[in-house]
UniProtKB/TrEMBL annotation:
Protein known as: Predicted arabinose efflux permease, MFS family
Localization (cell): Cell membrane
InterPro entries (UniProt xref): MFS, MFS_dom, MFS_Efflux_Transporters, MFS_trans_sf
Keywords recorded for this protein, A-Z: Cell membrane, Membrane, Transmembrane, Transmembrane helix
GO cellular component: plasma membrane
Membrane topology: Multi-pass membrane protein
Main subcellular location of this protein, as a coarse class: membrane
Molecular function via GO: transmembrane transporter activity
Pfam family, one: MFS_1
Origin: domain of life: Bacteria
Organism: Brevibacterium aurantiacum
């Protein structure tokens, strides 16, 4: 065991990795938690409010597809610093007393801040964290999104009651700035492992194409040549797209649904998203531990899709009955399942993709997720504004989760067939 592995990376690095994944989503979660007040203050419709998420995740999807490949050849410190600076800038713009247009720009910056954290944090794990701890750390750092959801969903409404939602945005700017300072310290004190990390490929999933590339121990010598990713990477991107549609349709409009349809207060409406965030943190760590023990990523995706489908049905039941208890159960199922998908997808990549192309492969899957994130709120907003209202929206959410389950089942059958032939 080499000296760097003996000492091992510290809590500071884990905090920074978790913060990098969660910094970009902070703004949108905060805006969603105070959506009723923002819609009223700006005089916009629910569909217009959905445009904030569409612009945010649209920019994230474009960034994932373009910047992630460039990220394969940029330093960890540069990329991590850029994440926190972009997140801070988005809060500053949101705090300015301007109209809806500038808020859209702020949402776009927040989206760019989300476009490459998965790739660079996965690479840092491969190159700086011993293999025995790596998958466990994936679960913790991927829970950064739900930590962000928890913090924003609780802090934003509470601060908005005191200083308005723009003041709340300015106050929360301190979080990415603090994480930026931590980044400089933690990365400089955590050296690269002496032996470059090679992924451990799941044999069954490798048969389907996830292990097609040869592990590499250094950055590509020809960075301009695009890496060819195995077919399963594209399949995981497709699953992330479908899941992302329903995830963000739910995340963005869940507090508004609670306030408008079930007559929750602004703070209690934000608490629905906060509860989903708490459960999501626990779920992501738990699913990562199962992956670390050798669980099949595809089977877990099928389980998650079925649980999310049950949650979507309960959201519909809450709407029809006007009762609160189905909503809280649906929120819990949402946190357990749909919010845990990304950690399973990222863990599957860690098993099969070498560090030299991890940023671009992660970017491809992340682009799929963000495309879904962009489409979901826009579609949900249009459905809410139609005659069907929230009921039509929850039906659509459930149908998309059903498609996720079907895709996972097809992929499982494909893996079985190729394993037999191999």
């Amino acid at each position: 065991m080499n000296a760097s592995e003996q000492r091992g990376p510290g809590l500071g690095l884990l905090t920074v990795l978790t913060g990098a994944v969660g910094a970009g989503p902070l703004l949108l979660y905060g805006l969603s938690a105070t959506s009723d007040r923002i819609i009223s203050d700006l005089g916009i419709t629910e569909a217009h409010f959905g445009l904030l998420a569409t612009v945010c995740f649209g920019c994230a999807a474009i960034g994932s597809a373009t910047l992630a490949r460039l990220a394969d050849n940029r330093s960890d410190l540069l990329l991590m610093s850029s994440i926190f600076l972009l997140a801070a800038a988005s809060f500053v713009l949101a705090a300015l007393p301007a109209g809806f247009g500038l808020l859209l720009v702020a949402a776009g910056l927040a989206g760019v801040a989300q476009s490459f954290p998965n790739g660079v944090t996965n690479r840092i794990l491969l190159e700086r964290v011993p293999g025995s701890r790596r998958i466990g750390w994936v679960g913790i750092k991927q829970s950064g999104v739900q930590v962000s959801q928890l913090v924003s969903s609780l802090a934003f409404p509470a601060l908005a009651l005191v200083m308005g939602w723009r003041g709340a945005a300015l106050a929360i700017t301190v979080i990415p700035i603090f994480l930026l300072v931590m980044t400089w310290r933690s990365l400089r004190s955590t050296p690269l492992l002496a032996v470059a990390a090679s992924p451990t490929t799941d044999s069954a999933e490798a048969a389907a194409g996830t292990g097609a590339q040869d592990p590499e121990s250094s950055r590509p010598s020809h960075p301009s040549k695009p890496p060819r990713h195995p077919g399963m990477v594209w399949a995981m991107a497709a699953f992330g797209l479908l899941n992302g549609i329903s995830v963000q349709a739910t995340n963005v409009y869940m507090p508004l649904f609670a306030v408008r349809e079930l007559h929750f207060s602004l703070v209690l409406g934000g608490a629905t998203a906060a509860l989903a965030g708490i459960i999501g943190v626990i779920a992501r760590v738990s699913w990562a531990r199962l992956m670390a023990r050798g669980a099949s990523g595809l089977r877990l995706l099928l389980v998650l899709a079925l649980i999310a489908l049950a949650g979507g049905v309960l959201f519909f039941i809450a709407d029809v009955s006007g009762r609160a208890w189905p909503l809280w159960v649906a929120v819990a199922l949402h946190g357990i399942s749909a919010l845990g998908v990304s950690v399973v997808l990222m863990s599957a990549l860690m098993r099969s993709i070498p560090s030299a192309s991890m940023a671009s492969a992660s970017g491809m899957v992340t682009a799929g997720m963000f495309t879904g994130f962009a489409l979901g709120p826009l579609g949900m907003g249009l459905l809410i504004g139609s005659a069907g209202g929230f009921r039509a929206g929850w039906i659509a959410v459930a149908v998309v989760y059903l498609l996720c389950a079907v895709l996972a089942a097809i992929l499982i059958q494909r893996v079985r067939g190729q394993s037999r032939s191999a």
